[in-house]
Amino acid sequence: MTDEIVKRLKAALASEWQAYYQYWVSAVIAIGKGMPGIVNEFKDHADEEKEHADLIAERLYQLGETPVFRPSDWEANADCPYPHYDGMTTLVLLDQNLEAEKCAVKNYQELAKLTAEADDFATNDMVVEILRDENEHETDLAKLKFYIMAQNGNQDSPNKPVNE
Ligand code: FE
Ligand code: FE
Ligand code: MG
User: Fold this and answer.
1) Following DSSP, what letter does each residue of 44-82 receive, concatenated?
2) In this predicted model, what pLDDT tens digit does every residue of 103-122 receive, in sequence order?
3) Quick check: 11 and 56 in contact, CB under 8 A?
4) Of the bound ligands, which one is closest to the alpha carbon of residue 51?
5) Structure pTM?
6) Which uninterrupted H or E stretch holds 86?
7) What is the pLDDT averaged over residues 68-94?
8) Cβ-count burial of 50 within 10 angstroms (0-12 exposed, 13-18 middle, 19+ buried)?
9) Distance 32 CA to ligand 3 centre (A)
10) How far apart are CA 57 and CA 68, in angstroms?
């Protein structure tokens, strides 16, 4: 276990809370705009980001470290940016979440490498498990985006309902 790994785990935890909240916001906006087809995916992903936060927080405690608890510290500690919400459309929402997933994938790939190099197999196991989910999230969003673009004839229409 290296200081770098602990630092990256704390950043990952802050990012997971941001990701959880980002999907929660996305689901609320999608409901508000009458886009039921994407609400469930956003809610599912929110739940999974929260599970990632649980796993990382538990691991930090096992390592004798204290997780970042203050919401105001999340953005400063997170290793992925939090988006601005204005002029939301379905495609903008999907793109923002895709960006977040790409950032998460990159960070967990780096953490997977770091933990393997440090022979920290317990943390490596957890990180690889989370990475699998983040890759799946990215694929799910990319599919949704493709589907919505096809439905809209490649033009975004924020208020158009999407059927599953
Ligand atoms: Fe996550
Ligand atoms: Fe994710
Ligand atoms: Mg999914």
Assistant:
1) HHHHHHHHHHHHHHHHHHHTT-PPP--HHHHHHH-SSPP
2) 999 999 999 999 999 999 99
3) no
4) 1
5) 0.89
6) none
7) 89
8) middle
9) 21
10) 9
Q: Any residues with CB less than 8 A from the CB of 3 and at least 6 apart, and which?
A: none
| pLDDT per position as a tens digit, 24-57 | 999 999 998 888 779 999 999 999 999 999 999 9
Distance 160 CA to ligand 2 centre (A): 26
Provide the phi-psi class of 119: left if phi over 0, else alpha when psi is between -120 and 50, else beta: left
The per-residue pLDDT of the chain, averaged, comes to 91
Cβ-Cβ contacts under 8 Å for 6 (sequence gap 6 or more): 60, 63, 65
What distance in angstroms lies between residue 153's CA and the mean position of ligand 1's atoms? 31
